[in-house]
Amino acid sequence: SHAKWDELLNVHVDTNGMVDYQSFKADEGALDDYLELIASNHPNENWNKNARKAYWINAYNAFTIKLVLDHYPVESIRDIKRGIPFINSVWDIEFISLQGLEYSLNDIEHKILRKNFDDPRIHFAINCASISCPRLHYRAFEASGLEEQLDLAAYDFINDPTKNMVEKDMAKLSKIFSWFRGDFKNSETPSIKDYINKYSEEKIDDSGSIDYLEYNWSLNNNTNVRM
After folding, report:
1. Beta strands 170-173; 209-212: pairing state
2. Cα 45 to Cα 50, 62, 169, distances in angstroms
3. Residue 146: which residues within 8 A CB-CB, separation 6 or more?
4. 96 near 102, Cβ under 8 Å?
5. Residue 64: in which H helix or E strand, if any?
6. pLDDT tens digits, 12-50
7. Both ends of the chain: CA-CA distance in Å?
8. pTM above 0.90?
9. What are phi and psi of 218, to 5 degrees?
């Protein structure tokens, strides 16, 4: 059950996906309880695909919050790497222990979620604690409604004008669509334009141009956003 995580998100994350890290820090014991719960209940062959996918999405997001809280206050999650030798980025720190196995956030994203599930909507469900990331959803992902949750995550992100600006003749997209270009191309959506048009309220014309926005790595702290 991800009920503990759901309760924490509902209290400390607003509808825009911004996190109140100060209040989360005061509730860190409850987060630790949830992390202990998932650490002792690793997915196995008896779990269906959506249960496994929801587990790893929630694990990624919960451990990202934990990593930030362990170093809070920071201006950016990327600042956490400083002072830690022999790693390429903060996402390569192996601080996640699940039933005797050690993981980094990159391990979960690239070696498990992207490799095993082949679902580009995952990019809109996991949150890297930064302003330009897809918003952290204020409810936990659950196996029973996962398809609807992931479709909504894709719709919300692509139609968020602070993340993507889509017009008929030109689109300025999140760099996620550049970094993971291949993930969004398949038989149904053979191009980035096709994928955007699948969810976007405004459709890009075939002749429309695509450019990419600068990525804002500032912490998705609710005090960093002017409401």
Report:
1. parallel
2. 12, 23, 47
3. 50, 53, 54
4. yes
5. helix 49-71
6. 999 999 999 999 999 999 999 999 999 999 998 899 999
7. 34
8. yes
9. -60, 145
